[in-house]
Design a protein that fits this description.
It is built from 10 helices and 15 strands. By secondary structure, the chain is an alpha/beta fold. The chain folds into 2 domains: about 180 residues, Rossmann fold (3-Layer(aba) Sandwich); about 130 residues, 3-Layer(aba) Sandwich (Rossmann fold), CATH 3.40.50.1220. Strands 1, 2, 3, 4, 5, 6, 7, 8, 9 and 10 form a 10-stranded mixed beta sheet that branches. Strands 12-11-13-14-15 form a 5-stranded parallel beta sheet. The longest helix has 15 residues.
Length: about 325
């Protein structure tokens, strides 16, 4: 993308649920005030509105943050179908930047799509600036005590917004140009296996932590050298790169070249699963650029629970082994 070119932006609105109006307002305010282009560049934005109920569809289109709207009918609570529709849109030319409201759905879609399309995802974006082929984003880090600027890698870029954008003032356009897409009502998802995204995230042959797209990190909560080795085996079964925290290395449960954090490697995977990790600031520095962080730990008050996008309170070793088994289970 050159200085005189147009940035293609897709604003994604799931109109199911009670907060659709706030999510639409967040998208519009961000496109107006939070996205900055270099001099001479323009943005061509299209809103993708997903809605189940016929009675609400016109109301939801009226809330759309852009004048151009793609309207897609999907059942409520079907992120798999939304992801399928956006992946199809991307394969047909798509957009440079996809913007989702904050929250679990936007985070899931951003991570899924980045994995499928080879793009880059980031959550909790406060501001974004495009300079040439680089997207720089501001987001809160270290329990929102600081902000950091993060440069995203390959396009397409998938970002979710910081929740503060939902409080911004924004009036949607008075007139919308609507293109109605075919309804997505399929229940046969044989071509969209739930873990297909994970299977596509195979790390490079070198096992380089800096370039891994799917990363599993074992912490002291694994309990022993044997626990760490079981998590490493589960990661290998899932096609993930494997890393550890500093306490694991200090206990001689794994080699130092597998360490992430301030005294190890800084990573930027699309998906990162941290297993038995408390979440000290020195460790978070090593994984905070991940598009999606899922934490598995028995302590729901650990610092990682405040930083991760999803948290499961359970035994980390057991969960990782069950997940690895699920990935490799033959289809019914």
């Amino acid at each position: 993308m050159t200085a005189a070119s147009s940035l293609r932006v897709a604003a994604v609105l799931d109109a199911s649920g009670l907060n659709a109006e706030r999510r639409a307002r967040a998208l519009g305010a961000f496109l107006r005030d939070g996205l900055h282009l270099q001099e001479g560049a323009t943005a061509a934005a299209v809103a993708h509105v997903f809605c189940a109920a016929d009675a609400l569809r016109d109301d939801m289109v009226a809330l759309a943050p852009t004048g151009d709207v793609r309207q897609i009918r999907t059942p409520s609570h079907r992120p798999d179908l939304i992801a399928a529709a956006l992946a199809a849109f991307e394969s047909g030319g798509g957009a440079d930047l996809y913007v989702f409201p904050g929250g679990p759905l936007g985070t899931e879609l951003a991570a899924r799509l980045a994995a499928r399309t080879g793009g880059t995802a980031l959550t909790g974006v406060l501001k974004a600036a495009v300079r040439g082929r680089v997207l720089s984003c501001r987001r809160a880090v270290f329990s929102s005590q600081l902000t950091a600027t993060i440069e995203l890698g390959p396009r397409p870029w998938y970002v979710t917004l910081d929740p503060s954008w939902e409080d911004a003032a924004f009036e949607p356009p008075a007139v919308h140009s609507v293109h109605v897409e075919a309804a997505l009502l399929r229940d046969d998802l044989s071509t969209l296996a739930p873990l297909q995204d994970v299977e596509e995230l195979k790390p490079p042959d070198t096992g380089d932590l800096e370039t891994a797209r799917f990363l599993v990190v074992a912490g002291r909560g694994a309990g022993s050298r044997g626990g760490v080795e079981r998590i490493a085996a589960a990661a290998a079964h899932m096609g993930a790169a494997f890393a550890v925290t500093r306490p694991v290395v200090m206990n001689a449960w794994a080699a130092p070249d597998r360490q992430v954090g301030v005294s190890g490697t800084r990573t930027a995977p699309a998906v990162c699963i941290v297993a038995g990790v408390s979440g000290a600031p020195a460790f978070l520095w090593g994984v905070e650029r991940a598009g999606f962080i899922a934490a598995v730990d028995t302590d729901d008050h650990a610092p990682i629970a405040r930083e991760a996008d999803a948290v499961l309170v359970a035994d980390a070793v057991a969960v990782l082994e069950a997940l690895a088994d699920l990935v490799h289970r033959p289809p019914d």
